[in-house]
Amino acid sequence: MKTILFVCTGNTCRSSMAEAILISILKENNAAEKIKVISAGTGAFSGDHASPNSIKVMEEKGIDISGHRSTLLSRELIDEAAIILTMTQNHKRNVLRLAPDAAEKVFTLKEFSYGDDVDLNERNDILDPFGHSIEVYKSCRDEIEEALRRAWEKRYFKFCVE
Q: What's the structural domain count of the chain?
């Protein structure tokens, strides 16, 4: 079984939502048993709950992340992952500082989902909603979901499920 690792800063907003959204997409496509999906944060305090606004906006999609607990990014998690999807270029750099040999398997989520269609300077990062309004969380959730659905439809996860 291949592992997909999502990375953000605190592992309480973006990466926890991305993890849950991809699991939901996998379930919709009868592929949940074929891919392990995990998340971590570059500055996470292990054991923190998902942020209340993340929980709320995911509930609107019928996804419960109230049981999520944050995990600090480690070399072991990087080594376990077949693909590492970060929320920003800075997160990608942090992964590569821990594991320079992971360069071929680490991408920002938008690089992975949109490839050459994304403007790497302008639109590549998924901004942190922490501390912002519920509307910002909804926008972040929708941006993550759009990217993951595109990646699934383009069969970018194909090698993980075959």
A: 1
pTM: 0.95
- Residue 91 corresponds to which amino acid? H
**Torsion-angle region of residue 138: left (phi > 0), alpha (psi -120 to 50) or beta?**
alpha
How many Å apart are CA 73 and CA 88, to the nearest integer?
Answer: 15
Alpha carbon distance 127, 140 (integer Å): 7
CATH of the domain at 156: 3.40.50.2300
- Using CA atoms, how far apart are residues 63 and 81, in angstroms rounded to an integer? 24
pLDDT for position 11:
98
Query: How many degrees, rounded to 5, is the angle at CA 109 between CA 150 and CA 10?
Result: 135
Q: What is the pLDDT of residues 15-66, one digit of tens each?
A: 999 999 999 999 999 999 999 999 999 999 999 999 999 999 999 999 999 9
Task: Please state, in angstroms and rounded to a whole number, the distance separating the CA atoms of residues 37 and 60.
Answer: 21
pLDDT in tens, 78-89: 999 999 999 999
Residues annotated catalytic, as ranges = 8, 14, 128
Q: What range does the domain containing 100 cover?
A: 2-161
